[in-house]
Amino acid sequence: MAPLSFAVVGCGRIAGHHADHLADLPRARLAAVCDLQPERAEAYARKHGVPAYTNYHEMLRREQIDVVNILTPSGMHPEHALDAMERYGKHVILEKPMALAWEDVQTLRRTAERAGVKIFPVYQNRYNKAVRKVRAALASGELGRPVLGTVRVRWCRPQAYYRRDPWRGTWAMDGGALTNQGIHYIDLVRYIVGDIDAVNARTATQLVDIEVEDTAVATIRFASGALGVIEVTTAARPDDFEASISVLAERGTAVLQGIAANELAVFTPAPDERALHSEIFPNAYGLGHRPFLLDVVADLLDGRPHPISFEEGTQALRLLNAIYRSAEDGREVRLAEDVASRRLGRKDDRLAALYRVSPPAAGEGGR
Fold it and tell me: Are residues 108 and 159 in the same domain?
């Protein structure tokens, strides 16, 4: 069976965690890379011996591609994914968050079904040993019934961070601390502790001049009856301090810490097992992209369903929109209301034009 061919669109900070693994993954090959900045695409092209493009339309017309890894600014994910699926019939991998506006999630679903292709949302931290251990301990009853689940993300993003690119710190393209920095931990607390029924939230912009929040807090009620707290800020100074998830349950306590919830710092039912279920991560991206991509290959070539389905991947976005809507309306929001934020992912054609490319005219090249 021929290997799956992947193309990377967007060669920013996260691209290496896709391109480098795809270059040596069994039954897969990196076929091409694309970025609006030629030098960024060419750096990966030279490293892996593949063609570089500045226009993904040209790339998808010329190259034999099965799966498109979309690593562009968050607000462009839906547009780029819809093109790849609807125009070219490609499967897509979408980095976090796969969409901002809740209506875009529904459009992605319908388009994938119509085109007969799959969407794979990236939540690589679900592969962490510590995450899997605590989730299994709750599911098996080792920890007992959950009582309290908390998220604390206390990171530092100064004004200079938001000046790097026009899309950063905007409702149209980025979202705030919850969306950009907090999304993985919002996903993990639900993944570990269980479904969430309701949220009550407040947000604020404290130390930087941006449209969106740099600080957010929310109280949550899980379907199990457990309570929870989500605290996410990029207003910690002068450095990143903490990214942790705590679970208090009737038979014990578990605390996940480290740069990306990679260390099982506390596990009272079996303290000696902490080291066994902890990992050393070189950076906040962790080690989960490789097993995630292996599961994509297994899904498409072997028919073994990916453990993170599109529907499962939408749940963090559903919760995210509920948190924002609660802060906007000043009330508790039940997730069953299925409401969307009034601001997150709102359209800005002027800003989108900076990252939008059109199919080249006949005879034009996109390399």
Answer: no
